[in-house]
Amino acid sequence: MADTAATNVAHTPSPATPPRASSFDAHHPPQKEHIDDCVHCGFCLPACPTYVLWGEEMDSPRGRIYMIKKAAEGEAPLDKRFQLHMDNCLGCMACMTACPSGVEYNKLIEPTRAQMERNISRGLGERIFRKLIFATFPYPNRLRILAVPLRLYQRSGLRALVRAVGIPKVLPSRLAAMEALLPEVPEHASYHVPNPAKPRRKVGMLAGCVQRVFFPQVNAATARVLAAEGCEVIIPPDQPCCGALMVHSGLEAEAAELAKKMIAAFESANVDTIVINSAGCGSTMEEYGYLLRDDPDWAERAAAFAAKCKDISEILCELEPQATRHALKMRVAYHDACHLQHAQGVREQPRRLLAGIPELEVAEIAESSLCCGSAGVYNLLEPEAAAQLGARKVENLLATRAQAVLSANPGCLLQLANGLRQRGLAAMPAFHLVEVLDASIRGVDAEALIGETRSGPQ
């Protein structure tokens, strides 16, 4: 009898274990289909900047996806450890280029960061610093006000004195990084937008936030080149920030609101193409359809807007050149901005444009797929890691023996210029590639170009 009872107990099925609730909340959690695309092969490891620096599995795309998977299955909490490894990611998307399985890592890290911002608290100092960044950088009018004391700081000689006595060395690392990355503040930011009598195409141009205040020469060069190639250029005056910094930092709601304002501004302009000369902005604007996918009033408009967005190098390669390129005798190194080559897949077009300039010699930089450390505001939030990557990039740059370095993103230009200054090479200029193309069309020689336009700290 006892044996029969024991047997019956042994064969009585136990209650099914209820599935664990996800650690993520219900609003846009990382999707299972994107998580499951990763087969953990490891091809992403040598492409990932933080894994290259530290060799830590949890600071690789594969490791981060594993952590995201465990959190999605309720087997890992959203805690400080989780936050640390996600914060360490630059969001450069080099893993997407390297991945043979087509993992859309951007659709994992960005919603994960939004989850973190809602569900993991940050310390008071961290919250204040981040609020300072996001209350300033996306607002051109605020940047213009800030530019006044910054210009005085630079022109008065105070900056030279501050650096000479070593004050940045005793500042907190983030403040020191802000001081080091400060671009040369221009005297004024106005420029004329020439338009041809019979335009080949009507294009809208993104003015940018940091770009329009601190790099007006890049916008001016962009407008001139487009006009020289027969485009009517419209720059909507009411265009806001594109929201890229917010998307990359997990501020999804704020990014969505800015996206709606941007879409409305360019819809009013009624343009054929939206031209972007900042790689980080471009990668975000091309994803507006995904960002606003659940909004019935904006999803279709966002998708139509995103389809019009193109990098300046893409649109110029689509148009048959009509402006004469004059010789520009100099050797330059071209640095691929991560959000151009990895997030947008634009790598060949900038090189084709540069190859069309007579006597311009273009050198390739070793480890071209590896981030320079800029990555939006990563070099302000994680200055130590960014500095290591910047120094590595500068070493590879110097090996090219170039006279100047080119890129297609203002953040990269600042990061490279600061890295060169740290090596005592402040005289080596960093240009946006459109500045070089503009110089060739205008017939400006290399010496005049270097004297006429410079980017980065001096």
TrEMBL record:
Cofactor annotation: [4Fe-4S] cluster
PROSITE patterns: 4FE4S_FER_1, 4FE4S_FER_2
Coiled-coil stretches: none
InterPro entries hit by this protein: 4Fe4S_Fe-S-bd, 4Fe4S_Fe_S_CS, Cys_rich_dom, Glc_ox_4Fe-4S, Helical_ferredxn
Alphabetized UniProt keyword annotations: 4Fe-4S, Electron transport, Iron, Iron-sulfur, Metal-binding, Repeat, Transport
EC number: 1.1.99.14
Reaction equation(s) it catalyzes: (R)-lactate + A = pyruvate + AH2; glycolate + A = glyoxylate + AH2
Manner of cofactor binding, per the entry note: Binds 2 [4Fe-4S] clusters.
GO MF annotations in UniProt: 4 iron, 4 sulfur cluster binding; glycolate dehydrogenase activity; metal ion binding
SUPFAM superfamilies tied to this protein: 4Fe-4S ferredoxins (SSF54862)
Pfam families membership: CCG (PF02754), Fer4_7 (PF12838)
Stretch list, region Disordered: 1-29
Compositional bias ranges of the Polar residues kind: 1-11
Gene3D superfamilies given in the database record: Alpha-helical ferredoxin
Residue span(s) of domain 4Fe-4S ferredoxin-type: 28-58, 80-103
Broad enzyme group: oxidoreductase
UniProt keyword Iron present: yes
Function: Component of a complex that catalyzes the oxidation of glycolate to glyoxylate.
Protein name, entry field: Glycolate oxidase iron-sulfur subunit
Organism encoding this protein: Candidatus Sulfuritelmatomonas gaucii
